[in-house]
């Protein structure tokens, strides 16, 4: 451990929230230093990244749905796991290089948050990608644990802490106590599914095809899970499915709430199933401790109200919910000695 710390003088050790939609990198003493979309632009038919390997993140996301035939913008993670090994490696390499700096002698130690429901094979894919991307040593931590640490929950104490992390590809629901996960559920329903629900609603109701980025803007601007405030409207532009021509129309917040009913209900079911499996004493603790929401999906208006109505528990949204997992990985790395036994046993299983 001393040698690792000494080597750390020649690199920037980092915690990474490798998300389906966004990748965040946190560095000890500096906080979040990178927050970019998990998107890579490549030449079609190859895995060669454009712009000398730099068409990653924001520059690549701007190309989504707008690329010519020779270029394709890829999101290499699907449902929280790697769907394209080579592109993920290129993306991680770009992010690590950007944070660590080209002048560093050694690669960094990296802690990466992964969904609790992924398989050993999927974990190995993450490890291999990070190592090939330049990491000196890689540790994995389950997302609910990282989120709980980043949100400041008392997860090391003998009391129940419940976290609901609604990301882009997965929703992680977990009850933690004594620095471990007592019960959890990982469902592949999250922010992307909300966007897809909006796309399908517009197509079915108005014969209007819209893109992923438009659907995301609708969700952010007027989307909600429960009635909140005055009804809102928004101009939506897309392609008319009948004429094939561009068309603009107005949608209301009530319509978008209706469109989001199915994915929100699926997440609520995951929460209630997790509570039903909890030990009685842990369930009792939650009457006082409540539920903590993190992740980008927690910013959907009224979603805390929906969870509270479904469970009867107090529900609160963490401070800076979109960065909790990344901050948790950084804290995990800072206290590596305390978590060493747990992490090494996880590595032995792979």
Structure commentary:
- The chain is an alpha/beta fold.
- It folds into four domains: 2-35 and 77-146 and 324-348, Nucleotidyltransferase, domain 5, CATH 3.30.420.40; 39-74, no CATH class; 158-189 and 263-321, ATPase, nucleotide binding domain (Nucleotidyltransferase, domain 5), CATH 3.30.420.40; 191-261, Actin, Chain A, domain 4.
- Helices cover 41% and strands 25% of the residues.
- It is built from 14 helices and 17 strands.
- It has helices spanning 2-7, 50-53, 58-61, 85-100, 120-132, 143-150, 191-206, 212-222, 253-259, 261-277, 280-289, 303-311, 324-334, 336-348; strands at residues 14-18, 22-27, 31-37, 40-43, 71-74, 77-78, 81-82, 109-114, 137-142, 161-166, 171-177, 180-187, 208-209, 233-240, 246-252, 291-294, 315-317.
- The strands form five sheets. The protein has a five-stranded mixed β-sheet with strand order 3-2-1-8-9, sandwiched between helices. Strands 12-11-10-16-17 form a five-stranded mixed β-sheet, sandwiched between helices.
- α10 packs across α12.
- The two termini are 22 Å apart.
């Amino acid at each position: 451990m001393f040698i690792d710390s000494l080597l750390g003088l020649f690199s920037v050790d980092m915690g990474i929230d490798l998300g389906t939609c966004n990748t965040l990198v946190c560095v000890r003493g500096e906080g979040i230093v990178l927050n970019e979309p998990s998107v890579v632009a490549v030449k079609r038919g190859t895995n060669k990244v454009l712009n000398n390997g730099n068409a990653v993140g924001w520059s690549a996301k701007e190309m989504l749905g707008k690329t010519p035939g020779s270029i394709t913008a890829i999101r290499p993670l699907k449902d929280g796991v790697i769907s394209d090994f080579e592109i993920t490696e290129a993306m991680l390499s770009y992010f690590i290089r950007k944070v660590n700096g080209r002048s560093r002698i050694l690669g960094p130690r990296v802690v990466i948050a992964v969904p609790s429901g992924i398989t050993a094979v999927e974990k190995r894919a993450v490890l291999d990608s990070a190592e090939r991307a330049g990491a000196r040593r890689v540790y994995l931590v389950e997302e609910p644990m990282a989120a709980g640490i980043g949100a400041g929950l008392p997860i090391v104490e003998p009391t129940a802490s419940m976290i609901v992390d609604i990301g882009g590809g997965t929703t992680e629901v977990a009850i933690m106590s004594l620095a471990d996960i007592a019960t959890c559920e990982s469902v592949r329903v999250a922010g992307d599914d909300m966007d897809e629900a909006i796309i399908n609603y517009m197509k079915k109701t108005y014969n209007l095809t819209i893109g992923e980025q438009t659907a995301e803007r609708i969700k952010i601007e007027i989307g909600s899970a429960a009635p909140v405030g005055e009804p809102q409207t928004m101009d939506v532009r897309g392609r008319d499915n009948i004429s094939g021509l561009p068309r603009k129309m107005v949608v209301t917040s009530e319509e978008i709430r209706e469109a989001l009913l199915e994915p929100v209900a699926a997440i609520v079911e995951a929460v209630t199933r997790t509570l039903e499996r909890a030990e009685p004493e842990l369930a009792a603790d939650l009457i006082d401790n409540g539920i903590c929401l993190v992740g980008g999906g927690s910013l959907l208006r009224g979603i805390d109200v929906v969870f509270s109505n479904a469970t009867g528990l107090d529900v609160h949204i963490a401070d800076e919910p979109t960065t909790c997992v990344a901050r948790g990985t950084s804290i995990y790395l800072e206290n590596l000695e305390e978590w060493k036994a747990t992490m090494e046993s996880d590595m032995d299983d792979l």
